[in-house]
Amino acid sequence: MIDLPDGRSTPGGWDLRQTTDELPWPDVTGKRCLDVGTADGFWAFELERRGAAEVVAIDVPSPFQQKARARFELACELRGSKAIYEERSVYDVDGEFDVVFMGFVLQMLADPIGALQVVHRACRGHLVLLDTVSVPLSLLPSPLARLDARRHAFEYFVFNRRGLRKAVELAGWTVQAQTRILRDRPGPGASNSWGHRLGLLGRSCALRASV
Ligand SMILES: C[S@@+](CC[C@H](N)C(=O)[O-])C[C@H]1O[C@@H](n2cnc3c(N)ncnc32)[C@H](O)[C@@H]1O
Question: Sign (positive/negative) of CA torsion 13, 58, 30, 170?
Fold first, then answer.
């Protein structure tokens, strides 16, 4: 759900608005930011709302993203946003960013550590990573991931809480803060969302890392 200037909000499949307050944000004021796997742009707009000077939002083409990009562009227009949308995979990121945001995209990548290494090379400041975690695996004391965690084609790895941190560290980042396990909240558009259709309502965890 994305808030619009007239007080309404888009009927998104997930309501991430409360989650924003739970994340370990770095100061993004005046910073050049990258939102990886932006979908409809919720996090790109949040970075802008927090004072980012420039936001580049990237995603890859798919039938899902075609619709999400239309919502991104509409919200951009209605909010008077200056966020720039680029059709680009995380593996092809270049340039230099102060803050990189990755929301629920790591789980969709065949090479999550490789992707974290790519954005590490393109970052001179902080990563904020928010992703689904496995609650049962988080009860175990080791860094772990479950492969094809939802038994369908969309996720490759879902880490446990320690595994999420370890993946980031293995890619060269220094983890500064990590949240407890957070509860995902469905939005009013949930009946059409991936999460609803695939029974994904779940738990997530966020961390902040520096280069
Ligand atoms: C579950 S959605 C999360 C969307 C948004 N970040 C959020 O938190 O609501 C995952 C997004 O990652 C995108 N994605 C998948 N593979 C990608 C890749 N290789 N590079 C960039 N984005 C990718 C998908 O198209 C999708 O929009």
Answer: positive
